Amino acid sequence: MSIATADIRRRAIAAYRNGKGTQAGIAHSYNVDIRTFQRWLARFATTRESAPRPRGHRLALFRGERLAALDQLVQDHPDATLDELRVASNVNGSIMSVKRALDRLGYRYKKNASRQRTRPRRRPAAARAMA
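The structure corresponding to this sequence follows.
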């Protein structure tokens, strides 16, 4: 379902304020849920705004100069962990923000082939049944 435009919201709120019907009736006539219409009314009562709020995520922590500095930091210290890169870059964020920035820069990760398993493998079901 798409977001109702500012015009539709404004007309629905005006209809209710002019006594054209109940909240449920106006919500039904504008094809929105009553709770949605109640949120529109509450927001209009507090802020006097009926337009939808901007959508989307906040901006990435690493962009522009910070992204270039992170790239240089990785080139200088290629074996640094994500947490070490976060601390060295002096950015107040999570290690996931560092990982996403490195993904945008095109860095890829590879498992260490010499690393051993931390626990033994499970025996196959057939071997367990014979024991």
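The chain has a mean pLDDT of 84.
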